[in-house]
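Chapter summary example: a protein plus adenosine-5'-diphosphate.
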Amino acid sequence: ATMPPLLAAIATAGRHGVLVKSAVVMEQLGTTTRVAFDKTGTLTRGVPELTEIRPLSGSPFTEDQILRLAAAAEHGSEHPLAAAVVRAARRRHLSLPAADEFSARPGQGVSALVDGQFVQVGSPPALLGTDDLATQVAAVVEELQQRGNTAVVVLCERNPVAVLGLIDQLRPEAVVAVSAVTGLTGAAPVLLTGDNAATAGQLAGHVAITDVRAGLLPEDKVAAIRGLERDGERMTVVGDGVNDAPALAAAHVGIAMGGAGSDLALQTADAVVVRDDLNTIPTVIALARRARRIVL
Ligand code: ADP
Ligand code: MG
């Protein structure tokens, strides 16, 4: 007996490195009209490098002391930015104190008690008050962002003590993969990110994406997808993080990047990319379309 087309397509997708969880998903994937990509860990490698530590004037800490506090607080986080901070501390041979009362807020940052001090590390809009945003902190944040950095602030006892600059490289295949998706759907994909608009806009320019939605919390990503679907789009969302899980669940089809992707994203998604290659996205959409044509 010959295999039904959608099951055959699932088998082929598997050989190309994408695990599609059901025939229904394969069928829906074939009707995709628009794709949305998460930025960090999806269009980028997800392995950012700490490039700069900028102590703020009035801060009592040296660069190493700041890095030590920030890395101790980040130790419990699975976020790529957290891993970069911890790696940078290890590279400087800093010994990390244990942290208590660790807490993470997806899309915002982390907090913990380190050496009895309340340390927070995360996105400037989430952690800074309007006073800080108007002052020296904001100037340093903006300067870093203009040069393509993701800026993260470090607070000790609720006072901003430093800004960290981190840079994540575009995946080498991103330009080609985005262009292939644009060719298939007839519209450039959407970029969804919790990162700031300046950094996101620069990266989007490199891959020819113009619809950039930045500064999004996980629930804002869901709202963006729902809005596009209300306008008649059938969205396929590609993401990797805990912060993407709600959007992956809300979309017509959610695809998680396997590799370094979070367990929650993998469980929530309708399909998982197990070969670390964005070109699998246009490949699997094309496969799904062909299978549908045979079924119909
Ligand atoms: P993206 O949508 O691009 O994958 P996220 O939603 O994961 O990004 O994160 C959005 C922003 O929240 C980051 O740019 C950073 O400023 C902040 N953030 C989130 N988690 C952390 C963390 N563990 N450490 C530092 N900053 C964080
Ligand atoms: Mg991500």
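Key point: Residues 280-295 form the longest helix (16 residues).
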